[in-house]
Amino acid sequence: MTFKPASWPRKLRSQAWYGGNSRDTIYHRGWLKNQGYPHDLFDGRPVIGIMNTWSELTPCNGHLNELAEKVKAGIWEAGGFPVEVPVFSASENTFRPTAMMYRNLAAMAVEEAMRGQPIDGAVLMVGCDKTTPSLLMGAASTDIPSIVVTGGPMLNGWFRGERIGSGTHLWKFSEAVKAGEMTQDNFLEAEQAMSRSSGTCNTMGTASTMASMAEALGMALSGNAAIPAVDSRRRVMAQMSGRRIVQMVKDDLKPSDIMTKQAFENAIRTNGAIGGSTNAVVHLLAIAGRVGVDLTLDDWDRCGRDMATIVNLMPSGKYLMEEFFYAGGLPVVLKHLGEAGRLHKEALTVSGSTIWDEVKEARNWNEDVILPVEKALTQQGGIAVLKGNLAPRGAVIKPSAATPSLMRHRGRAVVFEDIDDYKARIGDDALDIDENCVMVLKNCGPKGYPGMAEVGNMGLPPKVLKKGITDMVRISDARMSGTAYGTVILHTSPEAASGGPLAVVKNGDMIEIDVEARRLHLDISDAELEARMAVWKPSHEQPQSGYAKLFQDTVEGADTGADFDFLKGCRGAAVGKDSH
C-alpha cells in the first residue's frame, strides 16, 4: 500500500484546546500547568495520550506503569508532549461474570477518552486478554494515530522439572486431581510455579495471541509480541514506540490506513500458523467492524483452512513464549507466510514500512520451536468454521488443540441447560455419559451468560477421566480460554439465549461433527426442529437496569464479533464543542 505522509508542520487537533490566547485556551492550558509544565510545551507539538490499562486487579498489566515511563521518554525524545491517561481495564483474572462482558464498555471508554480530550496520537498500553482488543476497537472508532505496546508474557513456569504453562496446566492438573492422578497438595504446590514473573500468560493463550494479532495487523512495531515482560528489550520496545508515535502524528498515519482487509487476512493466517486462540475470532471481527472493514466468519475459514500450525507452543505444542522469543518470535512466522505466498507483503505497519520490509531478514534460531512446515503440528491449523442445522450462522473449533480421532464423530447428546446445571451434575456417577457422548452446554453466549464466558472447555466427568480418557467432543455457545485444549466447538450461532437451534437440543439426540467437511448437524428432521423451535421460550435472566441491560439489549452475536449493534463503522475523531 502506498501511503503519502501529511505535510508538517500543521495545526493539530490539540490546538483546539491549547492554541491561542482566548479565555478558553487559557483555561485549558492553565489547569494543565498546575502540574508544572512549561509554557512552550503548548506550542503545537503532538500531544500523545498514553492510554494505560494498568491496574493492581489486572495482574497481567501490573507492570505497565513502569513501561509507560519508557514510552514517555521516547515521546519526549521525539519532541512530543506525553500525558498518561488511565483507562478501563477489564481483567480476565478477576472480573465477574466475565471480562468479555466489559470488553465493549472498555472500548467505549477509551474511545471517548480519546475523542473528548486534547490528544493527537495514542499509545495503547495493553496486555490482559480483553485490554488489547478493547483499546484497538476504541482507536479504530476514533481513527486517531495509534500504536500498540503490549506488556509481554511471563517467564516460563517450572514444576518438578516440567514446563508449566499458565492456564494450560491449570486445566491439566485440575483434571488430574479429579482423576486421582495428582494430590490436592501437589496442585497447590504447582500454583506458585505457574506465575513466576510479571506479564501475561506464557502460553499461546489469548493475551499472546492478541499481541501477535496486533503485530500481524501492523499496529505494533515488529517483534513486539513475544518479548518477555521482564526482559530489558521490552522496555526498549516501549521507548521506541514512544518515539514512533510522534512521527505517526506528524505523518497522520491512522488505524484506517493500517487495518485494511489485507491486514486482517494477514492476521487470520498468522493465527493459524501460531496455533492462536479461538478468542481472536470475536475480537478481530469486532475490530474490523469498528474500522469499517467487511470481515466475516467465511473469511476466517477461507484464509485459515489450509494453514499449517508451525509454532510449537502450548496448548497445541510443548514450548512457551520465552522460547518463542528466543527462536525469533513473530517476524519469523510472518517471513514464512511471505515465502509461502500467504502474506499480503505490501500491507502497511505503524513503522511506515510494509510488513514484508519489516520481516524479510528475520532468522529462525530454533526449528524445534518454530517448525519447518513439513514438521508442522498440523497441516490443517487455523480456525475451522462449522455450519449446519445446529449452527446456521457458524461455530468454531481449533484443530491444532483437538484430538484428531474426534474430528469426525457421531455421538449421543448429554445436555446441560446452563453452567450451573453443568456444575451440579458433572460429578455425579449416576450421570448417563461415556466417552462417546457429545457434551452440550447452552445459554453461555453473549446474551446468555451474560458476556460469553470461557466455560466452553467443560471439564470431563470424573468417571470418564478415571478410565484414562482425556478428551471428548464438547459443543456450546460459550468461549474457551486460549490456554485450553480439546475437541471443543465454540461460539455456536445463533446462541441458545437468542433462540438458536442449540436451545432445543435434548438428551439423547444424536449429533454429528465433520471438521473436514465443516459440518455440525443435529440428527433430527427439519419438521421436528421447527416444532421444537416453535415452543421454545427464553430461560436466561433478563437484567432490568444498568450496563447489564444495555449489554443485553444491544450486543450482537459471536458470529459478528459480539460488539454493540450501534457502534459499528462510526469512525472519526471530531472535536466536541467547548463548554467553557
What does this structure look like?
It is built from 20 helices and 14 strands. The protein is α/β, with parallel strands linked by helices and 580 residues long. The strands form three sheets. An eight-stranded mixed beta sheet has the order 7-8-12-11-10-9-13-14. A four-stranded parallel beta sheet has the order 2-1-3-4, with helices on both faces.
In quaternary terms, these chains amount to single chain
Mean pLDDT, to the nearest integer, reads: 95
Strand percentage: 5-15%
First-residue to last-residue Cα separation: 43 Å
The shape, in one word, is globular
How many β strands by DSSP?
A: 14
Count of helical stretches:
20
Features:
580 residues, alpha/beta, 8-stranded mixed β-sheet, 35% helix, globular
Q: Topology of this structure?
A:
Elements: H1 15-18, H2 23-32, E1 47-52, H3 64-77, E2 81-86, H4 100-115, E3 121-126, H5 131-142, E4 146-150, E5 157-159, E6 162-164, H6 168-178, H7 184-194, H8 206-217, H9 232-251, H10 255-258, H11 261-274, H12 279-291, H13 297-304, H14 321-327, H15 330-339, H16 355-359, E7 384-388, E8 391-397, E9 408-416, H17 419-425, E10 438-441, H18 462-465, E11 473-476, E12 488-493, E13 510-514, E14 519-522, H19 526-535, H20 546-554
Parallel strand pairs: 1-2, 1-3, 3-4, 9-10, 10-11, 11-12
Antiparallel strand pairs: 5-6, 7-8, 8-12, 9-13, 13-14
Helix pairs in contact: 3-9, 4-5, 5-12, 6-7, 8-11, 8-12, 11-12, 11-13, 11-15
